[in-house]
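Repro:
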Amino acid sequence: QVQLVESGGGLVQAGGSLRLSCVASGRILSINVMAWYRQAPGKQRELVAAITSSGSTNYAGSVKGRFTISRDSAKRTVYLQANSLKPEDTAVYYCNADGYDSIRQRFASWGQGTQVTISS
């Protein structure tokens, strides 16, 4: 079983910054893609940013140029540096990871989410 634990959320004024972290633990053989999603009240969960094991990244258009995703594979950790935050960035942010566990079974896991609130 693979667990993901996020941290770093909070209340920030518009224009401010936050750094989210997500650590994966459990019987992990390898992690392919690590990603951040978010879900605002009354809206569907959406992809914010993703990063592959080789370092390729993908961003939602609404955060491109403001958010940066990175990972430390040795620490099984993914980060999201969020700058120039806007009230519309307010959401619960979820970490997602997919890969293979120690018995070579594919897994796809979610964290419990961390609240990010941006005040205007």
